[in-house]
Design brief:
The protein is 66% helix and 4% strand. With 414 residues, it is mostly helical.
């Protein structure tokens, strides 16, 4: 019991250091969501050439989307005629940063690490996009036009919302929808960080793996297949760095982990082709190692213990209030998993299997799209079983529902 308590204490210490900055980041994420909807992204990035690759990386860096949440946006870009290079640039730059993770990186690892992470996401996105444009053939024609829909209510008809509605939408997205997706990963990251802090002795990683290329390769091999969000990975990286992992090794974990997961890899192979998938993985691998080595040079002899927890500049009272507030918000967000997984699916209702649905962000995206369909009265979504149940007061064709889900970038299992 004393071990469990010690781990929880270490995890809570990490929580209160990152909470003020994370809450600020979630607020700005809500602002971006309301005032910069995905249709604007599509309009600006749906094109070919170098400019679209650069704009994809530039727009992708601040957007608070995880590696699965970015998939629907990328499929929409592709349908609008975006080049493979622009799509890969967006796929890499978006999940590896995000306004929320930028704030938290600053709070826990300082301004140098935060700025380096942003620049690395931008450069790697462009690098991957240029390679794709050079080495892949484009035989793609613009076939579909996405109607402009409202991020607040998802309706496509012309209308406006009051200032109060927009404020509500900012807080709803930033502190409810985003946390439904990122909350469990933040908790997992904090617990793993607490475990590492408690069990692994000081200097362990440096003693057995060193601080050079070998440790970086090990981190890269571990980071690529697992899924961690850009924010949830931070406390894990901090704990590893305090135990002897170099700054470059910590960067690789923060970069390669959020950039890749099994679903993203599958979708890239499906929509962009195997050659684009190889370019995507090689770009992340090569850039991670090179940028990690460069960060070690720039970092020099700085002691990580003197850099970590920049949030200590804030009064303890503020950190504690923010920490408990964030914890309560996360616990509230987790209610959705209990609710969704308890739904009993009735056979007489329309049921579809959506393999690419992996998180609450995916569920929210599909739910909002379906609720805008005339006649739909409700949806039950089971993320664990990958099932979507549609309730309606009138008969709705299965083909229409499939079309709506596919328009959001998700495949249907037949």
């Amino acid at each position: 019991m004393s071990v469990v308590i010690s781990i929880l204490v270490e995890s809570f210490n990490l929580l209160i250091e990152m909470a003020p900055w994370l809450l600020m980041g979630f607020f700005f994420a809500g602002v971006l969501y309301v005032f910069f909807p995905k249709e604007k992204v599509t309009r600006h990035l749906g094109g070919k050439g170098l400019l679209s690759v650069i704009k994809s990386a530039l727009f992708g860096v601040p957007l608070p989307l995880c590696s699965c949440g970015v998939i629907p946006v990328v499929t929409s870009l592709r349908k609008q005629g975006a080049s493979k290079g622009a799509c890969l640039s967006f796929l890499i730059s978006t999940p590896t940063s995000g306004v929320d993770s930028i704030f938290v990186t600053y709070s826990l690892l300082g301004p140098l690490f935060a700025a380096y992470r942003v620049i690395a996401s931008f450069i790697t996105g462009i690098f991957s996009g240029l390679l794709a444009n050079i080495f892949t053939k484009e035989n793609y024609e613009k076939k579909e036009v996405v109607e402009k829909s409202c991020n607040i209510c998802n309706k496509t008809i012309p209308h406006t919302h009051s200032f109060i509605d927009k404020i509500k939408a900012i807080f709803s997205y930033g502190f409810i929808e985003l946390l439904e997706d990122a909350g469990r990963w933040i908790i997992l990251g904090l617990l793993v960080g607490g475990i590492i802090t408690y069990f692994i002795p000081e200097g362990f990683i440096e003693r057995y793996l060193g601080s050079g290329l070998l440790s970086m390769l090990v981190v890269l091999v571990v980071a690529i297949p697992i899924y961690v969000c850009a924010t949830g990975s931070i406390p894990i990286a901090v704990a590893l760095m305090l135990k002897g992992l170099s700054a470059g090794g910590g960067f690789i974990f923060l970069f390669a982990g959020p950039a890749t997961n099994a679903v993203t890899i599958t979708v890239i192979g499906k929509y962009l082709g195997k050659k684009s998938l190889v370019i995507y993985l090689l770009s992340i691998g090569i850039a991670s190692i090179l940028l990690g080595l460069l960060l070690n040079v720039l970092w020099g002899d700085i002691e990580i213990s003197k850099v970590v927890m920049q949030g200590k500049m804030l009064p303890m009272s503020i950190k504690l209030v923010c920490g408990w507030m964030l914890l309560l918000l996360i616990l509230y967000s987790l209610r959705g998993y209990v609710k969704l997984n308890k739904n009993k699916i009735a056979m007489e209702e329309l049921i579809l299997e959506v393999p690419g649905m992996t998180c609450q962000h995916c569920a929210r995206t599909i739910e909002k799209a379906l609720r805008a369909l005339n006649g739909v009265t409700g949806t039950d979504i089971d993320i664990k079983k990958k099932l979507v149940k549609v309730k309606s007061e009138i008969v709705i064709s299965r083909e229409k529902v499939i079309e709506i889900i596919k328009s959001e970038g998700y495949l249907i299992k037949k």
